[in-house]
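Please check these two lines:
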Amino acid sequence: MLKEVLTQELVSVGLSARTKEDVINALLDMLCTTGKVKDRATALQDILANEERMSTGLEQGIAIPHAKTEAVEEMVACVAVTEHRIDFESVDHKPAHIFIMTLSPKGQTGPHMKFLAEVSRLLKDKKMRRNVVEAGDSAELYALLTD
């Protein structure tokens, strides 16, 4: 599933974001490069509304900002690692530095859940998380996530 959704252009290391809002905007910009996001403003509004309901900061330095939105017709996703740890109002109250953003069409849950399950399984491993954070460039990060 990761190979079906991600491309090397949709993974990034060394993201210079410093705030939760910076991360969300940078990831959304990455997704907009695919041409699959029909309306950036709607997508952003839906992501922020989802964050208002409940922060998507998980544990172990991982956050998954996401939304169901009419701005896409198929699921899109990207992954980024930031240079600095960022407060994402995480469940464990620790800052995050591995970010996965997904946008899915409203009414569609299958691909979204399958993608998140695969990412969760991969990042559950402490060594894998360390390798993701230490990836030297987007090619290395892409290979880690898809091999």
Notes: The chain has one domain: 2-146. The CA atoms of residues 49 and 67 lie 8 Å apart.
